[in-house]
């Protein structure tokens, strides 16, 4: 997880998301913030570094991967690296990759995903 000026907002959004996923009866909800079991580091052949998702859960047997972004992180180079990695990981492992952003940032996130040719579901979170 990279440090940025909106880290507190980022962590609050992760907590809100993780709490909401528990409410949807998803299994094994993990979040990369204190108070939650931390998701494992995922690795993939062809990538130098592994990455830890912000939140993971299971809907039945299907892994759900969530990366939370704030307005200042959508165009960050580290975000691009993570999005490419998690999209590839999801594709190779029959998982679903979600990019979670504030509602007003949905167009920016969709635009950035398109520019990068990355497939992900964009999900709003307050």
Quickly describe the structure:
This protein is of the alpha/beta class and 126 residues long.
Written overview of the protein:
The chain has helices at 7-23, 77-92, 106-116, and strands at residues 27-31, 55-59, 62-68, 96-101, 121-124. It has 126 residues and is of the alpha/beta class. It has one domain: 3-Layer(aba) Sandwich (Trna Endonuclease, Chain: A, domain 1), CATH 3.40.1350. A five-stranded mixed β-sheet has the order 1-2-3-4-5, with helices on both faces. A hairpin with a 2-residue loop joins β2 and β3 (62-68). The two termini are 20 Å apart. The model has no long low-confidence stretch (mean pLDDT 92).
Based on DSSP secondary structure assignment, what is the total number of beta strands?
5
**What string, H for helix and E for strand, traces the elements in order?**
HEEEHEHE
Oligomer: single chain
Largest sheet: 5 strands, mixed
CATH topology: Trna Endonuclease, Chain: A, domain 1
Give the radius of gyration: 13 Å
Secondary-structure map with pairings?
Layout: H1 7-23, E1 27-31, E2 55-59, E3 62-68, H2 77-92, E4 96-101, H3 106-116, E5 121-124
Parallel strand pairs: 3-4, 4-5
Antiparallel strand pairs: 1-2, 2-3
List keywords for this structure.
single chain, 126 residues, alpha/beta, Trna Endonuclease, Chain: A, domain 1, five-stranded mixed β-sheet, 3 helices, 5 strands, 21% strand, globular
């Amino acid at each position: 997880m990279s440090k940025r000026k909106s880290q507190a907002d980022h962590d609050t959004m992760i907590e809100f998301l993780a709490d909401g996923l528990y409410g949807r009866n998803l299994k094994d909800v993990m979040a990369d913030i204190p108070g939650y079991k931390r998701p494992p580091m995922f690795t993939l052949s062809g990538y130098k570094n592994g990455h830890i998702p912000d939140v993971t859960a299971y809907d039945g047997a299907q892994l759900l991967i969530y990366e939370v972004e704030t307005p200042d992180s959508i165009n960050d180079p580290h975000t691009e690296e993570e999005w490419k990695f998690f999209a590839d990981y999801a594709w190779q492992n029959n998982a679903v990759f979600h990019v979670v952003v504030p509602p007003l940032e949905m167009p920016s996130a969709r635009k950035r995903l398109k520019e990068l040719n990355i497939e992900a579901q964009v999900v709003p979170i307050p």
